[in-house]
Write a structure and sequence with these properties.
By secondary structure, the chain is of the alpha+beta class. It contains three helices and five strands, in the order H-H-E-E-E-H-E-E. The protein has one domain: OB fold (Dihydrolipoamide Acetyltransferase, E2P) (Beta Barrel). Strands 1-2-3-5-4 form a five-stranded mixed beta barrel. About 5% of the residues have low confidence.
Length: 115
């Protein structure tokens, strides 16, 4: 009787780890992070933001003219654009996470400010 009480939570633990694994693998794999100052920014007629960051080394992006991109129609895109404008105006660095794109610019998945 006592042993059955001890093992009744095992199913819950397995469910927890299964859910945690699904959540972890449902996000796109990040190719990397890159830190630097906003060097150039361009918004095209379709709401696509093209971006170059001046930082140490080179990001794993395969486009000669523009390093990164995101679309202004995304959930957080307008906030990201405001962050980029603020960092550009202040001359401070920003870090971004991106997914590699062998056919062009890397796609941004997050931004954050640095001290």
């Amino acid at each position: 009787m006592k042993f059955s009480y001890l093992f009744c939570g095992v199913g819950k633990i397995k469910k927890f780890f299964l859910i945690a694994a699904l959540v972890l693998f449902s996000f796109p794999a990040l190719a990397g992070e890159y830190t630097g100052k906003v060097k150039a920014m361009y918004v095209d007629q379709y709401g696509r933001v093209l971006l170059n960051i001046d930082g140490p080394g080179q990001p794993n992006c395969h486009q000669a003219l523009w390093q990164f991109n995101f679309n202004l129609s995304g959930t957080s895109a307008k906030e990201w654009f405001s962050m980029l404008l603020a960092t550009r105006a202040m001359g401070t660095s920003i870090r971004l996470g991106y997914v590699d794109n062998p056919a062009g610019e890397c796609t941004v998945v997050y931004f954050y400010f640095l001290d």
